């Protein structure tokens, strides 16, 4: 299953938990759900969906990877986005228990946009036991 995510800023997060949960087939009682973003300048994380923490994550990525001074910038000016996405990773795998995503109380699945605004494609694959 695939869906798209519209982002509205260069560096931002979008909660996609409900869309991922809806992709779990009704007959899948246990297994795994893999969420993959098909882009080299975006990633996926499991993290708390709290506005201040989301802002902290964005600030952390900006501090960790400077906006300028990278060789790839000579090509298209977005090396910082590629490096931030490489740190985040392009996929997460979540257990399925009793037909639901086995996320902790405060856990959400979020797409992290590093080169927006853009339209991103997210792929969800489930495997049942």
UniProtKB/TrEMBL annotation:
SUPFAM superfamilies: YjbQ-like
A Pfam cross-reference name: YjbQ
Top-level taxon of origin: Archaea
UniProt cross-references to NCBIfam families, sorted A to Z: TIGR00149_YjbQ
Family: Belongs to the UPF0047 family.
Protein name in UniProt: Secondary thiamine-phosphate synthase enzyme
Annotated source species: Natrinema salifodinae
